[in-house]
Design brief:
476 residues; alpha/beta; six-stranded antiparallel β-sheet; five-stranded mixed β-barrel; 11 helices; globular
Length: 476
């Protein structure tokens, strides 16, 4: 049985301001309306055995967004998804070894894992399926398989794989893995024809991977077993025990297993591939005009060449410039030279040092129950638009330093204020004093929207004291 394992994590800091910690790269939506994660799950469903689950390794904070993305991309497959939730960020070796333990326990050690990062873009699904079939054949013969992408340029940002002896007819043995090279070395790799880019996608039996881990990284395997045994799979979710998970070594699967193991193979990835690692990669997905400009949204280009402009809301005009990347969002604008695409992550580092919210959140913040959009954030008040999904409910909570006014814009809301519980219709409002328990619920089968006006001297999210919460956010 072929079981896809989707690794969905990482901050995607080089794609700020669209990718942020609370809504990272896998959820970025392309002009066709699909996200990278949505495209990945469709690709996985296309090669998985019909009875196989789709296993997603992601952070606890992203599970509800991931569910929404899957419901949007493949609405009839909800019963097939397993969610393995990490309490904090870790590397790929812990994620993959834990996934192998889960698949071995639920599907058996003979099940074949297809490990797919959630932030890769592959358009040619038929060619992808053919490469997966070749990899599966080798995996069923106990090879540890990766996919090698034929290099199209002397890229210094990728690791490389040197091909060894052929394995007829499916691939090659791996002679060695090579770290990200300097330009001169990368040019040599490109000219030799012996090297492929390391795609970060893998295929192997669960039992084969665990046996290799026992040999190459027994510390990772022992810590993973302790974490797996301390955690419980309930419904469709395995929520990893925090202490045991944080005790796992922070190491990649390349370092921990693939570079040290025996019987490693590389299958040629004879399909288009991009890891969408920068705004240059994003821009290449958009059509180009006669001046070399690529635009998304409301962009006006005057005497400008070789620029990429992405405007989410406002009109962006570029006059007399060249080789620029300009990204506009509701609360931030990035202007960068194309040659500095890899340095965008330094903006995020600077914002974090300043403890600026733009490093973490967008103006619209997604929550398990829906979302809120900040309309005004002043010293004496804060105004939000809340959208609550059908059947969802906010936590029972209170605030020490602010009062709130709720006005229903659309739909019917069920509200608790103190000991009172009542319905609010469109254009009706209520007042919640400081230190008063309150809760908001959507009892209907359609989204509801409210305007929330906060008054007080502090409006931070840490002034929320939760007493009950169906999403597990009450502090222990």
């Amino acid at each position: 049985m072929l079981v896809p394992v989707i690794l969905s994590g990482g901050a995607g800091t080089r794609l700020w301001p669209v990718s942020r910690r609370a809504y990272p790269k896998p959820f970025i939506r392309f002009p066709d309306g699909e996200s990278l994660l949505g495209k990945t799950v469709l690709r996985a469903l296309g090669v998985a055995d019909p009875a196989a689950p789709i296993v997603t390794v992601t952070g606890r904070d992203y599970q509800f967004i991931t569910r929404d993305e899957y419901a949007r991309a493949a609405p009839t497959t909800a019963h097939r998804h397993h969610y393995l939730l990490e309490p904090a960020g870790r590397n790929t070796a812990p994620a993959v070894v834990l996934a192998a333990l889960h698949v071995a326990a639920t599907m058996g050690p003979e099940a074949v894992l297809l490990v797919l990062p959630a932030d890769h873009l592959i358009v040619d699904r038929a060619a992808f399926a053919r490469a997966v079939a070749d990899a599966r054949t080798l995996a069923e013969r106990d090879w540890l398989v990766t996919f090698g992408v034929a290099p199209t340029r002397a890229e210094t940002g990728y690791g490389y794989i040197q091909r060894g002896a052929p394995i007829v007819p499916h691939g090659h043995e791996i002679a060695r893995f090579v770290e990200k090279p300097d330009l001169e070395t990368a040019l040599g790799y490109l000219a030799s024809g012996e090297y492929a880019w390391n795609s970060g996608m893998f295929c192997f039996r669960a039992g084969t991977l665990l046996a290799a881990a026992a040999s190459t990284c027994p510390d990772v395997l022992a810590a993973a077993r302790a974490c797996h045994d301390a955690s419980r799979f309930a419904g469709d979710t395995l929520d990893y025990a925090r202490a045991e998970f944080l005790a796992m070594p922070d190491i990649s699967i390349d370092y921990a297993i693939m570079e040290r193991a025996r019987q490693r193979a590389v299958v040629p990835a004879q399909f288009d591939w991009s890891d969408i690692g920068s705004w240059i990669a994003i821009s290449e997905q958009t059509g180009v005009d006669a001046q070399g400009n690529r635009t998304v949204g409301n962009a006006i280009m005057v005497n400008s060449r070789d620029c990429y402009v992405q405007a989410e809301g406002r009109t962006v005009a570029a006059v007399g410039v060249s080789d620029l990347t300009i990204i506009e969002t509701a609360d931030a604008v990035l202007v960068a030279h194309r040659d500095a695409a890899q340095d965008v992550k330094r903006v995020v580092e600077a914002l974090r040092e300043l403890e600026h919210s733009a490093a973490e959140h967008h103006v619209t913040v997604h929550r398990p129950w829906g979302s809120y959009t900040v309309l005004e954030d002043a010293d004496d008040c804060k105004v939000k638009r809340l959208v609550v999904k059908p059947g969802q409910v906010l936590s029972l909570q209170l605030h020490h330093r602010r009062s709130e006014h709720w006005t229903v814009v659309t739909g019917t809301a069920k509200v608790r204020v103190g000991d009172r519980e009542f319905l609010l219709q469109r254009n009706e409002s209520t007042y919640i004093p400081m230190e008063t328990l309150h809760r908001l619920e959507n009892p209907t089968d359609a989204d509801i929207a409210l305007i929330e006006v906060q008054c007080g001297d502090y409006f931070g999210e840490d002034d929320i004291v939760r007493l009950e919460d169906r999403y597990g956010r009450v502090a222990k």
